[in-house]
Automatic annotation (TrEMBL):
Lineage per the UniProt record: Bacteria, Pseudomonadati, Thermodesulfobacteriota, Desulfuromonadia, Geobacterales
Species of provenance: Geomobilimonas luticola
Protein name per UniProt: HAD hydrolase-like protein
InterPro entries according to UniProt: HAD-like_hydrolase_sf, HAD-like_sf, HAD_sf
Gene3D superfamilies referenced in this protein's UniProt entry, alphabetically: HAD superfamily/HAD-like
UniProt xrefs under Pfam families: Hydrolase (PF00702)
PANTHER family hit by this protein: GMP_IMP NUCLEOTIDASE YRFG, PHOSPHOGLYCOLATE PHOSPHATASE
């Protein structure tokens, strides 16, 4: 893919796995929550995982999956408190701040567009301080649809002005890139290095990067080939 930044006005960026290391989220849901659940119900860690992981999977691709209040009520645990217990694992991917600064210098409209719950957003923006670089931050919970739903991108356009033909979307979800493609968003980038603990695998369908620094063109140019 050839990216000519003169042809792009708006950049939409996912948060977890895209800008931030998904190691935090994977550890939280697959280790920390099961451990806390096991302690509460006097179970082994494996017994807790056997109960919780199918439950989590049943809510994938819905807003419930990222709704901390839903999981607090469903599991009888204080999920926001548990997140704060391991918030030292929250980390920004290498190259992200440099990329955001590049976009700002070239007057792009930069939006964080995430399925994350407002309480998760508050925690992660406070820990990472990257919120200052965005023109706006939109949670799918505000729109009533997750990004996995094709109708999401039209609902988003009611909230922020963007021309799909002049928009770039960065995501670690091929499903979300597919729904964006159906809405004719022109520039689709898959972040294959979504976690520092997982070996990156490029997407067979979308242009893939490890780091956003790959999208910054050489000095004196506004074009980059991937």
């Amino acid at each position: 893919m050839q990216i000519n930044w003169n042809e792009i006005d708006t950049v939409l960026l996912d948060m977890d796995g895209t800008l931030l290391d998904r190691h935090f989220d994977d550890h939280f849901w697959l280790e920390h929550v099961p451990r806390s659940y096991a302690q509460k119900h006097t179970l082994s860690l494996q017994e807790a995982k056997d109960i919780l992981i199918p439950l989590f999977r049943s809510q994938e691709n819905t807003l419930n999956w990222t709704d901390l209040d839903y999981w607090s009520e469903r599991l009888g645990l204080d999920i926001p408190l548990l997140k704060r217990e391991v918030d030292h694992l929250i980390a920004v991917h290498p190259g992200v701040v440099e990329f955001l600064l590049f976009l700002s210098r070239h007057d792009k409209h930069i939006y964080l567009v995430t399925n994350a719950h407002s309480k998760t957003l508050e925690l992660k923006m406070r820990k990472t301080r990257v919120g200052q670089y965005f023109t706006g931050i939109i949670s799918a919970h505000e729109l009533g649809l997750p990004k996995e739903e094709p109708a999401f991108w039209g609902k988003l356009r009611e909230r922020i002005p963007y021309d799909p033909a002049r928009t770039l979307l960065g995501e670690d979800s091929e499903t979300n890139l597919s729904t964006a493609a159906a809405y004719n968003i022109a520039y689709l980038i898959y972040v294959s290095r979504f976690s520092s603990t997982v070996t990156p695998v490029p997407s067979p369908r979308y242009t893939s990067i490890h780091y956003f620094s790959q999208l910054i063109p050489p000095a004196g140019s506004l074009s980059v080939r991937l």
